[in-house]
Structure formats: C-alpha cells, structure tokens
Amino acid sequence: MSETFLHSILVVEDELDIQNLMCLHLSREGYHVSSAQTGKEAYNMLSEHSYQLVILDWMIPDISGLELLKWMRNTSSNCKNVPVLFVTAKSDPEDIVHGLEVGADDYITKPFDFTVFKARVKNLIRRLGFIDTLNKSENKQELKYQLGDLVVDTGAHKVFIDGDEITLTFSEFRLLETLLRNQGKALSRQQMISFIQGEDINVTGRTVDTHISILRKKLGQYGRFIETVRGIGYRIGFI
C-alpha cells in the first residue's frame, strides 16, 4: 500500500550540503520533503511511497539519476507520471536534451540560484493543481483526439499509437493537447509557453522548440503532422 503526502517532494542528491539546502528551502515553502543520497535508496522510496515531485541529480551512486528516470518512465508503478526536475552539473545542450528525451519535465544546472530553484518547483507543483482543476471543470470528461491510429485520451492523460501506449512528459502531453485543441490553427511559442508553464516563469522559445523536437520523435510517423509555421510557431494540420 503506497503512502501519499500532501505536496510531498523527494530530493535525490548525494552532495549532503546541497541536499540539506534544498530540503531547507522547500520545507520553508511548506512542502513535505524526503531525501535520498543514492539511486538505490531513491528506488526503494519510490517503490514504497507516492510523491508529487522528484528532484533528481544526474550523477548519484549505485544507480545514476538518468537510469532511475528511465525506470520511472517505463515502470507500471505509481511513479510513472510523477514530474521530475533534473538537477545536473552537465550543462551541455546535448546532455540537457538527452535528459528531456528520457523523460525529465524540467531541468536546472549547477550551480543554481535558490530563487530560481523554488520557482521551478512551484511551477511543476502548480501544473498538478492545474490538471486537477481542469478535470473538475470538465467534470472529468474523457476527451479524446484521434489522428489515424494516434489517440490522445485527455481524461486518462495517455497517448496511444496503434494501440500501444507511448510515454510523454507533462510538458510534451500539454503541447500535444494544446495543438490538437487548436487543430489547423498556428500557435505562437509564447502562447504555448503560457499554456503549459505559466507566464511568470522565464521560459524561452528555444525550450518549446526542444520539446517539439522530442515530441515529434516520440510520435514517429505522426510527428510529421506537427508543422512548423515560419515566423509564428507550430500547428497540427489535418489528415
């Protein structure tokens, strides 16, 4: 039986000084914070408890943060859809893109400012609240969109291709849903940023481009329906 805490966060960080500072700042914000120093310890905690957010360092002992993230996204356990904020000293664009491709919802590179750190956490937590509000406002209707054998079930928050479920991060799912809700319309990057992340977070158009690139890859042949509209942004065309 899994245990769920209100606004619970798991911090996975092997550098104890940084871990303590993270936990201190988050506790002061009113979150219930648990911590782990190794990948194995985090694996056990994720297997036994439910969390609303995982803050995950890339380079940790036993099981790397990247491998732990892959397990989270591929497992059938209760942590499959938990948002992940990746914390890493790897600042190369290739590393960041790789982390997003594996399933991170957001990332922050070391060293970082704790004001920015808290804003990123608040944003990810707010997304969860937005989903709950959306479900209530729509009376939990299971809205579905279909392009050929691509099915997007917004009620279940799942995507299927040829009957097989594919794993998308929260941001990728919201981008896809936003485009489908506005099928045929060109949406600017700023419109998409505002919808999936909120206007008070400094996210660039480049971030949207990265998510769209990854989303196209995950959708396979259906990725071609996400069209780039030069000078504006993106749209999903009709079959």
How would you characterize this protein structure?
With 239 residues, this protein is an alpha/beta fold. It folds into 2 domains: 3-134, Rossmann fold; 142-236, Winged helix-like DNA-binding domain superfamily/Winged helix DNA-binding domain (Arc Repressor Mutant, subunit A, Orthogonal Bundle), CATH 1.10.10.10. The chain has 8 helices and 14 strands. It has a 5-stranded parallel beta sheet with strand order 3-2-5-6-7, sandwiched between helices. Strand 5, helix 3 (65-74) and strand 6 (84-88) form a beta-alpha-beta unit. Helix 6 (170-181) crosses helix 7 and helix 6 (170-181) packs across helix 8. The longest helix has 24 residues, at 114-137. The radius of gyration is 18 Å and the shape is globular. It starts with a strand and ends with a strand. 33% of the residues are buried. The model is unreliable at 1-6 and 130-140 (pLDDT under 50).
